[in-house]
Design brief:
225 residues, mainly beta, Immunoglobulin-like, 5-stranded mixed sheet, 4-stranded antiparallel sheet, 2 helices, globular
Amino acid sequence: MTKRLFLAAPLYLIGALGLVEAASLQGDVVDAKGAALGNAVVTLQGPAGGVAAPGKAVMDQQEMRFVPSVLAVRTGTSVTFPNRDDIRHQVYSFSPTKRFELRLYQGTPSEPVVFDKPGLVVLGCNIHDWMVGYIYVTDDPWFAVSDAQGKVSFDDLPAGDYRVTLWHSALPDMQPRQGEAFKIEGAAAQRFALPVEASSEGEPPGAPPSAFGDAFKKAVEHGSH
């Protein structure tokens, strides 16, 4: 009997620890009318723990669009800008968070751009004025961009209390919104709402040439944080 009790205790503890380590979050991002909202950035602040080092990311140019149109990265991430079109692009940003210019090129520039400060970066192309993209740079350890169905998923989260930050390019002032605090234990689900209206994603080539100018002006007027 003594031996059985001795073995059972460690197994119980291992099971309890497993439950703590298995925390996850499935999120649904919706607009003001409750419709699924794609291309929304969701970032999480939570219990102290290990934080992944900044890595690498890619912002493509395909069919005269930035792909993805919204990219979320951790502060310090190196981003490459391959041009997969058969014409040249000239990518740039005047955003205070990161000012840079990649002069006319095809293929992939030899040096990536390091996004070393948190905030919003609005991308444009000097040759194709309708091209607009966004890079959201965050210090938060967990982040994701919602898919076309408004879904985000976070796995391997430590259980505990979290606070969410939300952003979408349709926000009138382009400023991120702080959400309510919530607790994650085991497999959790959460609904996040933003005061915007969902619309068709992206504009085709030939869209109004003010697309980048309007996005950049809105971001600058209200600050890029």
